[in-house]
Q: What sequence folds into this?
């Protein structure tokens, strides 16, 4: 692991941590203690086993380093994250599929439960798992107007797991989540703002980062303990469901994803992407 100090946009030193060949880059502003975690897995930040593992490791490191906040963003031009890597569950190796899904569960739990405040800087398209990660942050700022966000699983002929659904319900409420999920709708930035799926729409990524810092800096005046307890209580039922049902969720997903019908839908969807 390499570390170096670089000068940030506002002339404070930031502490960078790079792993060689890393798909995740992190900088920490020494003055504010706010980290920026940049996902950088070409071409679309699709979340495969190794990438998820790296994101989880990075989040755990930030917790250990006691950062004051974290912004999650993408280093790619027009994609925040294309969601789960479909090649992990199309014609899968069953052992790897199990490992992949367990790692997704753990990464999501780590992100959803961080003891520090988080903001998603959504600087590109954010379907499915990308939307899940954005929704798991405390605040969402999206660069408009060209990109889209949503849980589009039904469009792939698959079903969003209960904890994806509960995460969306927590952000936009039962009724809007039901419509979003059943139709697999991808929202434009304006539409996402209108239904409360994002908190701010901004014209460019620099403004998004400024606004993200502004949001996270609010917590300098809040007791970290009060913050964490409040977040834990608010998110408790969704988190506890997955903790209590990890194996059941895994068994169901592994069986379901390998069914002939789902494999057929996924094959057709992948083909349409290649076109
Ligand atoms: C009970 C529950 C059980 C299971 C639940 C499973 C839950 C799954 C949740 C998910 O996250 S599923 C993934 C859903 N994601 C998508 O539907 C996104 C699909 N991708 C796109 O819409 C577009 O690629 C994009 C808008 C993200 C980017 O568009 P563009 O810049 O035009 O790039 P390309 O479409 O040309 O894609 C480049 C390259 O990347 C491949 N790719 C795209 N997305 C994925 C992906 N999610 N997984 C794997 N690979 C992906 C695409 O096929 C292209 O590959 P080439 O080989 O043709 O270069």
A:
């Amino acid at each position: 692991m390499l570390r170096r100090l670089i000068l940030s946009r506002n002339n404070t030193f930031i502490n960078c941590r790079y792993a060689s060949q890393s798909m995740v880059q992190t900088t920490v502003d020494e003055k504010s203690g706010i980290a920026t975690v940049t996902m950088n897995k070409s071409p679309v930040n699709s979340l495969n086993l190794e990438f998820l593992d790296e994101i989880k490791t990075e989040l755990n490191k930030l917790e250990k380093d006691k950062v004051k906040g974290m912004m999650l963003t993408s280093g790619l031009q027009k994609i925040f994250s294309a969601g789960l890597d479909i090649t992990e569950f199309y014609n899968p190796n069953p052992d790897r599929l199990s490992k992949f899904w367990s790692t997704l569960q753990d990464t999501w739990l780590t992100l959803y439960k961080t003891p520090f405040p988080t903001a998603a800087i959504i600087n590109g398209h954010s379907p499915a798992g990308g939307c899940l990660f954005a929704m798991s942050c405390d605040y969402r700022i999206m660069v408009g107007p060209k990109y889209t966000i949503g849980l589009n699983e039904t469009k792939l002929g698959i079903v969003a797991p209960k904890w994806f659904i509960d995460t969306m319900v927590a952000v936009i409420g039962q009724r809007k989540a039901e419509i979003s999920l059943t139709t697999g709708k991808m929202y434009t930035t304006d539409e996402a703002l209108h239904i409360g799926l994002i908190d701010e729409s901004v014209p460019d990524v620099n403004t998004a980062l400024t606004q993200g810092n502004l949001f996270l800096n609010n917590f300098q005046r809040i007791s970290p303990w009060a913050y964490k307890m409040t977040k834990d209580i608010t998110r408790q039922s969704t988190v506890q469901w997955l903790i209590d049902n990890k194996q059941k969720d895994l068994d169901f997903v592994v069986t379901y994803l390998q069914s002939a019908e789902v494999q057929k839908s996924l094959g057709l969807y992948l083909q349409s992407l290649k076109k």
